[in-house]
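Morning!

This is the sequence you dropped in the shared folder:
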Amino acid sequence: MTEILSTDNPLLRQWNTPFNIAPFSEIRASDFKPAIEYAIAKALKEIDAITADTSEPDFRNTVEALEKAGDLINRITPVLFNLNSAETSPELQAAAQEAAPLLTGLANDISLNTELFKRLKAVWNNRENMNLTREEQILLDRKYKSFVRGGASLSDEEKEQFRAITTELSMLSLQFEENLLAETNDFEMLLTNPDDLAGLPDGIREAAAEEAKERGKEGWLFTLHFPSYIPFMQYSERRELREKMFRAYAMRSYRGNTHDNSEIVKRIVTLRLDLANLLGYADFASFALEERMAKRPSMVSAFLTDLLNASLKAGKRDVDDIRAFAKESGFSEELSRWDWAYWSEKLKMKRFNIDDEVLRPYLPLEKVQEAVLGLATRLYDITFIPNREIPVYHQEVKTFEVKDTDGSIIAILMLDFHPRKGKSGGAWMTGYREQYYSHGERVIPIVSLVMNFTRATPARPALLTHSELTTFLHEFGHALHGMLSDCKYESLSGTNVKRDFVELPSQMMENWAWEKEWLDSWATHYQTGEKIPDEILTMLRHSLTYNEGYASMRQLSFGLLDMAWHTLSHPFNGDIISFEREAMSSADLLPYVNGTSMSCSFGHLFSGGYAAAYYGYKWAEVLDADAFSLFHERGIFDKETATSFRKNILERGGSEEPDILFELFRGRKPDSQALIERCGFNK
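The structure's back. Tokens below.
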């Protein structure tokens, strides 16, 4: 039972709520700092109890005790940082800024604790004689290496340097994210002339009118949030307005104002290099990759180069096709980045008679939600029961009990679909509690999906694009990884896997978005109830490889930039743009736009945990294409294959090495040929 500091602080009380979920409505930003200070003190007492133990160090009294230490911290901090991303405020941002150095200090106090490391090292040195289970072996390996990588072997002077670096990094990452959100929210484009709406579908116009109305303005208001930005770039016939939108988006946090991230980027990459050097590594990538499937920077570079070579011909062909089509259509300007989405959609419509707007009426959000959850039921025999009694942080959040075949509740799922001013852009899966076992009982995970989908308007319900459907499936794959987890230890459960393996379940789920057999079973027109016509589904399948060469090159350019930043061997004091252009040049197919920066808004790298890991998306594409090919061989709803994926991948979390888990499912090592075939690169 959690100790109580004060009944005035809801974060430190027993949560008499369904499933012990945070009582969001009672929590104030001012509650976090005192609660975290108390929880840190409690965690340090728990660590002191381990080091004060006079008995010989063993797995139970050292490794398992360390795993359980800090349980109160693990309860409080997800509430703070998840709210700071999904429903923030200036007060919450301040609370997160206050908490970050405190939590980094705690992590350092633990990993730099000499007596604790002595006990852990004693267990490590004696591990062959302890008859540990495989999961216990993995936990010991993770704990020991995390201490070594956390500075435990450093001298006292070096430990102080380590503390200073990690504390500053935690603050800078938070500031980067806050700056990017502020820049995204800061821009709006209000149109008052109906002629400026040329080319925009009715649903996009209605959403823009509703956005203007909500902000007390007349006309049509467009923002940099994806449901507004992306369709505008795809359909607006006003090239000068597309350019305005593109520049605003691509210049976020690179405008020389108070939210500029340029110096933060430079400082972060320099500090990461300092950290790696301090621990004995040549660069940050060498440090980060040591604990990933791709062990070394050279392995990642070879992987990216191989995919680049496989993609290059198709990527150039895609760009040439768009240029030629635009020219045939009377476009006489040089093809710029703000032209790509527009002409790409036009050509897609001509070739396949299909675009996002053709499918949108068949993808009402309520039906999509029902279908995605139903797909999990069909594959994994789990069901989703709405429960409106579960506390939520915003009235739009939907909550479900997730039940297994025996009727037991195995998880809680939260769904948060639409953009808000306090919500970061993009889409992500997160957790308010991880799955683990306590006294032999499975503690159920609390999983949340946060997205930014098109809202309903007075004239029509929320209708998703096909890309939004794919995003839903992607994040839901992460959710399945969290919800179906069945690991003994919290730090090994769910998505706590090596970073270049974590995208396998999510990208695996995306495959169903292209399958006629699934779409035909549920997707109907929101007005007429008619199914998607067969010819549209056929064309959708044919369009799977459309512009895939360009898309692959674009993704690879991000991976190349990531590796360039994190294989630096000297502190960076140069020009960000020159650095970016050189790093991405081999994969860049369109001309650079002056005044724009990728790095300054690259949240994955500088605030999202993907430093020296962005290649993982392409890495996981190889895994997911190969894994899904087994469903194609046996049937996309084949229960035996789904059960194997659940047992060998989704339930196992990080309790085994990922290459072993993949082989258990697929029966062999991954083969990249399935991805090359799916992308059409060999055609």
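Headline: Residues 245 and 523 are 32 Å apart (CA to CA).

More detail when I'm at my desk.
O.
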